[in-house]
Amino acid sequence: MKQRNEQDAPKLVSEFALEALLYEASLYPKPGLVDPKSCGAHADMNYSTFIDSSTALAPFLSEYVELGFDHDASPSILFEKVRALGQQAEAAMLRKTHGVNTHKGANFSFALLLSATGKIINDKQLQIPFTKQDTADVFNYVKQMTKGLLSKDFSGLAHKKHLSYGEKLYLEHGIVGIRGEAELGYPSLNDSALPFLREHYKRDQRMLFLILLLHLMAMVEDSNLINRGGIAAWQTVQKQAAELLQTLSVNSSEKELEQALILFDQQLIEENLSPGGSADLIALSFFFCRLEGLF
User: Fold this and answer.
1) 194, exposed or middle or buried, with CB in 10 Å at 0-12, 13-18, 19+?
2) Which Pfam families match (predicted)?
3) Integer Cα distance of 116 and 111 in angstroms
4) 225 occurs within a structural domain
5) Domain count, the chain
6) DSSP 8-state assignment for residue 161
7) Which structural domain, as residue segments, surrounds residue 39?
8) pTM assigned to the model
């Protein structure tokens, strides 16, 4: 990849983020999820809805990077700025999709990670592609941005009359969702997804990300699955994904992998289950792979 100076980097970073959203939507076949050939377990959205949603978020992706790039105060202040902008982005997304929530979780994570990326680029005068350490610095900065987020957002829940589903999950089961992932610096990406992709990036890209999706489904705390089917259904899907990984790998044939995932998709559609949290992490993984020049 051609080396660019730090002044060009913010534009390139936001382009990578938009590519990541479009890549995740285009990846096929994804169990329970929307792709070009299936609506998954979603009666209210399809592939076109995700394209519309991505285009609505595109200008905000650039703004997230610029917010971080221009930021010279504390990480917590950047978080407040980004959260306010993220709410505007979410509203724009919902207008474009006529109220359908396609990218709420992805928008939250990209807001954090893109602003942190912009901040790290400016502070370290970085060029693209990133090194593994540059990426780790982004995750560390997100940890600083979100320090205490769970305790702040979930304080006083026991006395709150009307709880969101996420608040109920936290109160009843200790499920921390994407907030917890962010406050820990995205360990599912930093410790699992990205090491896997760095090791195997020379393999077929589509096959690689489909196997990664199964890895994520087997390990992450997916509040989308829990929301639709409850704790037991989420744990069952985790177990099934892990069992598939015992027979499938990056060395499997394309036909073998496709057939297994199409069957899994049909099952999750029947059970109205969608691993949307894992899908968001696929997009984020692709983004960092582009940032590091792996693809």
Assistant:
1) buried
2) CitG
3) 9
4) no
5) 1
6) S
7) 9-146+167-199+279-291
8) 0.95
